[in-house]
Write a structure and sequence with these properties.
Blueprint (H helix, E strand, L loop, with lengths): L1 H23 L4 H7 L5 E14 L2 E15 L4 E4 L3 E6 L6 E7 L1 E5 L4 E12 L4 E10 L4 E12 L2 E11 L5 E9 L11
Antiparallel strand pairs: 1-2, 2-3, 2-4, 3-6, 4-5, 5-7, 6-7, 7-8, 8-9, 9-10, 10-11
């Protein structure tokens, strides 16, 4: 009886082991693939107010109703509900220009911000820029775009595809220009 009992025990053990290997080691292929993927760390915040200063002088103030901070290959702050930025002068600390956009992405390591959808920039003298895409280079303190832009400046309405400007929106360089431009009489050649 012991021989038969031993054979039965070996058979039961073999069956249990086979079931363990057949059913216990199955993996979902997608779950295995997902193990190797990097997951982006994501943070969210509401009612954002951020200040940018340089050498103890206030340079800009950013306000936004909502922000997502993603850390992946490139760390970025996304403002999906719009953003407002006020830029300040170096000398007096007064507001020199304002920017509004319905959507913005701040690429932290690049030092650049992409503004999209109904972008509006204006300075305190009334010069106004409207476009649907505008980059702000924080390090060089300048705006630029290669998209269609409309500028209203001292009675002139200038449409262009592409422009660059300083942060104060005082020195603007246009690329492909169309539109009306008022020329003072003193610059016309004498007859």
């Amino acid at each position: 009886m012991t021989k038969r009992h031993t054979q039965t025990s070996i058979i039961y053990t073999a069956i249990i082991a086979a079931c363990f290997f057949a059913f216990g080691c199955s993996n979902d292929v997608q779950q295995v693939r997902d193990l190797g993927l990097k997951k982006a760390a994501k943070e969210e915040a509401s009612s954002i107010t951020a200040y940018m200063s340089e050498g103890s002088k206030l340079k800009a103030k950013l306000t936004a109703p909502f922000m997502q901070h993603e850390i992946q290959d490139t760390a970025k702050m996304i403002f999906p509900k719009g953003v407002k930025v006020e830029f300040y002068t170096d000398s007096t600390g007064a507001v020199e220009s304002r920017l509004f956009a319905k959507y913005a992405v701040n690429y932290e390591k690049l030092g650049k911000v992409l503004m999209l959808d109904s972008v509006l920039v204006y300075n305190m003298t009334g010069d106004t820029l409207r476009t649907n895409e505008l980059w702000w280079d924080r390090n060089r303190q300048m705006f630029y775009t290669d998209k269609a832009a409309h500028v209203h400046q001292q009675g002139n309405n200038i449409n262009s595809v592409g422009l660059t400007s300083d942060q104060a929106f005082k020195n603007i360089s246009f690329t492909h220009v169309t539109g009306s431009l008022a020329v003072p009489d003193s610059t016309l050649p004498a007859k």
